[in-house]
Please model this.
Amino acid sequence: MELPRFAILLAVAAFAGTATGQEKGTATQASTEVASPLAKKLDALKARFDKENQDAYDAYVKATTDDEKQKIIAGMPGKNYIPEFRAIAKEAAGTDTAAQAWLWVLRLGVDAKESWEIVELMLADHMQSTSMEELTGHVADAVSAQGEARVAEALRAIVDESPHASVRAASLYSLGSVLLESKKPESRAQGRDCLEALVTEYPDIPRGDSTYKAAAEGFLFALDHLQIGMTAPDFETVDENGVKWKLSDYKGKVVVVDFWGFW
Amino acid sequence: MLPHEKELVERLKDKPFALLGINSDGTAEELKKILAAQGITWRQAVDGDQGGPLATKWNIHYWPNIFVLDAKGVIRYRDVREKDMDDALDKLLAEAKGV
Model:
């Protein structure tokens, strides 16, 4: 059952595919129509990573013994790519190629200190970039290392300063998620405000296959109906034989509702 | 998870208890294959993929994701596993008996 790790890496690669290479050349970045040598270098590195990842996945699917599978997992591309992405990011400093390369460094996983240094660099150099959409997730992930106040300040800056609705929506979502985990009731109230603002102000910004609005609504529904001590909301569904059933069919019984998958 | 769930269903078969699986593997046909291969007998919902209607409505972002409800339908525990789930269910079944 190690497949989820592949799924995550493949999802990362897929996300990278949509989130990169689409930067609207902003005035400050003086991007030209022709890809710069560093942009090409980054593309080549991404292609090499993706191929290695795909090959490992294909080999994993074909592998028959646990030993083989473990070996493939151990040899998968990952942190060993960080130095090359980091080198491109430094060499391309100030350009969108750098922003994209730093995102790769963050995805592949660096320690909390470097992770936050990259966040600060991106806030200073890349506020105009669409790469900030993905960065907001990394900012939110830093909350245990950096504390709520610092993380919230960074996310608010992005909400206030990004010219892209997709980036502002992502940052509001991350900010809301962080604040709702707060021990302080006033922070939690602000977190709720962020999600409500998303629902009303950003109705159709895509988030993966869904939208930020739908994600925020899910969050709000969970807050209002799915906390310990609340009566579980009824639902109607259908089983594998097409037979309809409802949660309320089981009233009077102790019930385990198990959201599961066998991937 | 699965071996423990099978054990649970067997152990509590005469008690007012239900294990309800909300599955995110895809279609009914795909689920049927998995149920047969794994020997899963308890009630299932076919919820499509990971962005299925129930998973979306209930804000599910990781799997497995577990809600334990008492006999009145109140959510009492989240994401308990193995011994913790056994203890939770025993407590709720004892409560249900006392009502």
Observations:
- Chain A has two domains: 1-110, 111-233.
- The longest strand of chain A covers residues 254-260.
- DSSP finds twelve helices and five strands in chain A.
- Strands of chain A lie at 206-207, 210-211, 236-238, 244-246, 254-260.
